[in-house]
Amino acid sequence: MRPPPPRYAIADAEAERIAQAFFAASRDGNTQALGAMLAQDVVLHSDGGGRVIAFRNPITGLARVLRLYAGLRRKPGAEPARLLRPMLIDGLPGFASLDRGEVLQTTALAVEDGRIRAIYIMRNPDKLRHVARILAQETPGSPH
Q: Could you give the residue ranges of the DSSP H alpha helices within 9-128?
């Protein structure tokens, strides 16, 4: 799963603002803030490569995506995701994070007309090796 190339260029500062706002709202299960950012026909795609948990099918529509994020926040004993850093992913605003259980993932956001129309979550460790290397190089004292 590879996001399509961006149709509209977004300035770096705006891309980082969108990514950080989305991360905070999704981590906290803040459906009000998410609802203000997402398009009615938003689609969430995820890829775990069969190695880590991911959604098997795309999640479509604002109501379903909001229920998903609210439900993830309510899971007992689950630690909230930890933002590693905002980054452009295939030209889209996004971020790298550590999700529950310290699973590395990237999230790319396709923005059109000021709303997030698609969310691409990559959790497949085989496809994230290059991201892990970049992040390890940025971390002082990293064993990599």
A: 12-28, 31-37, 62-74
